[in-house]
Design goal:
Layout lengths: L1 H29 L1 E7 L7 H8 L2 H4 L2 E7 L3 H9 L5 E4 L2 H8 L6 E8 L4 E5 L15 E3 L6 H12 L9 E3 L7 H6 L5 E5 L2 H8 L3 E5 H5 L5 E6 H6 L1 H20 L2 H8 L8 H13 L11 H13 L9 H4 L3 H8 L1
Parallel strand pairs: 1-2, 1-3, 6-7, 6-8
Antiparallel strand pairs: 3-10, 4-10, 5-8, 5-9
Helix pairs in contact: 2-11, 2-12, 11-16, 12-13
Length: 334
């Protein structure tokens, strides 16, 4: 009798396990897949990683896959060729695509960062830095036409420095090799992202003397965007995606840099946790992380002013043409 009961329990438990596995499988299959292409892997994008690690996307019924496609051109190519559903890249790329006469424009629907994310790093330690110190020096800048370089030139001009006359401006080095070039001895000053800027400071290779983010004001530096056709066919998905990002933005805003660092650490396995915290704290302090996904008209106009100042604006484009704020507004109201 006991043997029969034992066999019966075994069968029951096996059946429960099968149904449990099937249930999990069904749940996973029911999740809507969304492919994200990010322009680079950066602590600057902390809220995105929080949305993944805290399960905010899954809570919305989304199964996201994240791929790093280095460079704005590669990221936009992935989006346009249907290699990705959503791109995280600078808003200037959507302007470039539209200016080329695209029949399916790329629409900005959720802003992630609202300032430039680069810092001015000096080879020598400077206690009382002022921007005039750059005149006559060799400045290692970023790629021509990219947001870092355009913001850099915008800030320099605001301080009375003509980057093409007052400096020996070097900007023919690939984004991935700029830091290595400076570390090898090229340039007196360099424009760097984190965590490289802080790593250089820690190792004595350079010293952070100014923030381009503080100097340039609010600008849609990195935004989630998708093709207009995708957004029309996947309205619910885009709304759920935006809601997950908003939850993450609010989470980062209301939690300490140390807590955020611990959550996003899996995305930066080779970076010291203390350094991640330092970088998150620096970006939080200067308001780089947007606290909501709305890309407003003032920010859009500031972006075009910066592009125009750099001679890279193909034509003035209305905010309503390439920006959709209705989804973000709806998400925030709910």
């Amino acid at each position: 009798m006991r043997k029969k009961i034992k066999i019966g329990l075994t069968i029951l438990l096996s059946a429960m396990l099968v149904f449990s596995i099937a249930g999990c499988s069904d749940k996973k299959e029911s999740l809507k897949k969304v492919r994200i292409a990010e322009v680079t892997r950066s602590i600057f994008y902390a809220p995105q990683y929080v949305a993944i690690e805290k399960g905010f996307f899954k809570d919305e019924g989304l199964d996201v896959t994240l791929t790093t496609t280095p460079g704005g051109d590669k990221t936009m190519t992935a989006l346009i060729s249907n290699g990705a559903d959503v791109a995280l890249v600078g808003s200037e790329t959507s302007i470039y695509v539209y200016a080329q006469g695209s029949s399916d424009p790329v629409i900005n629907f959720a802003q992630l960062t609202q300032t430039d994310g680069t810092f001015l790093v000096s080879r020598d330690k400077i206690d009382n830095f002022n921007w005039d110190m750059l005149k006559g020096t060799t400045f290692l800048g970023q790629r021509k036409g990219g947001m870092p370089q355009m913001v850099g030139e915008f800030v320099l001009k605001n301080h009375g420095i003509d980057p093409h006359k007052d400096l020996n401006l070097i900007q023919n080095i690939d984004f991935a090799n700029v830091a290595n070039a400076f570390a090898s001895g090229t340039g007196d000053f360099v424009q760097l992202f984190e965590p490289t800027a802080s790593i250089f400071e820690k190792e004595g290779k350079g010293h952070i003397v100014a923030s381009f983010g503080k100097e340039s004001g609010h600008v849609p530096y990195t935004t989630f965007m998708a093709k207009q056709s995708y957004m029309k066919k996947n309205k619910d998905t885009v709304e759920k995606f935006t809601r997950a990002i908003y939850k993450a933005q609010q989470w980062v805003d209301s939690h300490s840099a140390a807590e955020t660092a611990k959550v996003i650490a899996p995305f930066f396995e080779n970076t010291d946790l203390g350094l991640i915290e330092t970088v998150v704290d620096r970006y939080k302090a200067q308001g780089s992380f947007a606290t909501d996904p709305i890309l407003d008209e003032d920010e859009w106009n500031n972006l075009q002013n910066i592009m125009n100042e750099a001679g890279e604006l193909p034509k003035q484009i209305d905010h309503s043409t390439l920006v959709n704020t209705s989804i973000a507004e709806k998400v925030i109201k709910k």
